[in-house]
Amino acid sequence: MRQIAKPLVFAACLLPALRLAAGAFHVAGVSLGADPVAALLHTCGRWTLNFLLITLCMTPLRDITHSVGWLRFRRMFGLFAFFYALLHFSVFLLLDQAGKLHAVGHEIVKRPYITLGMLALLLLIPLALTSTAKAQRRMGRRWTRLHRLIYAVALLGVWHFWWQVKKDIREPILYACGLALLLGYRLWKRRQSMAHISVARFARTDGA
After folding, report:
1. How far are the Cα atoms of 27, 86, 96, 115 from residue 99, in angstroms, in the given order?
2. Are 91 and 40 in contact (CB under 8 A)?
3. Which tens digits make up the pLDDT trace of 14-45?
4. pTM of the predicted model, to two decimals?
5. What is the DSSP string of 115-136?
6. How many Å apart are CA 34 and CA 133, to the nearest integer?
7. CB contact at 8 A, 33 and 39
8. What is the distance between the alpha carbons of residues 37 and 98, in angstroms, rounded to a whole number?
9. Are 172 and 158 in contact (CB under 8 A)?
10. In this predicted model, what pLDDT tens digit does every residue of 48-88 receive, in sequence order?
11. What gap in Å lies between CA 113 and CA 19, rounded to an integer?
């Protein structure tokens, strides 16, 4: 079962991109609607956020189910978040801005929500480059500290989406609530761990 789980999950993660490609080339009757560029942009952006939050779900699921099996997929989900973020930016650069780098630079400076999105993408790059087991072994504790940047990336991504939406903010609110729960869980676990450490130290001191 383990041997086929990863390929199946990988294929499922690719489905949104394949559907977008089918829509872009009008394959199998798939359509991207009246504004295909906007559809590509928004769908890639949403799936970036989806995979960021799914990646952050792996640790709580491990704790709740007492199974480390969830962690086998964490790296894959994180890399798919980077993949869809790159697609999101590529559509913005090549289709929305016609490949004009100066126009992209102008938009990044002019529009704060694009500034946030660009910053999130830049922070994702070192995470993707150091996602291998070899990099983790080589970097040691520095790897753990570096990969905590995913919290900042997720926060910037949700913020980027919130500012990009003009009127209906219900969807950004859902993402913000999901992220708040995931970060809140980690804060709660950290406080629990610190409390246990304090109790253990007090017990040793009292026993001495």
Report:
1. 25, 14, 8, 18
2. yes
3. 999 999 999 988 887 888 988 999 999 999 99
4. 0.91
5. HHHHHHHHHHHHHHHT-SHHHH
6. 44
7. yes
8. 11
9. yes
10. 999 999 999 999 999 999 999 999 999 999 999 999 999 99
11. 27
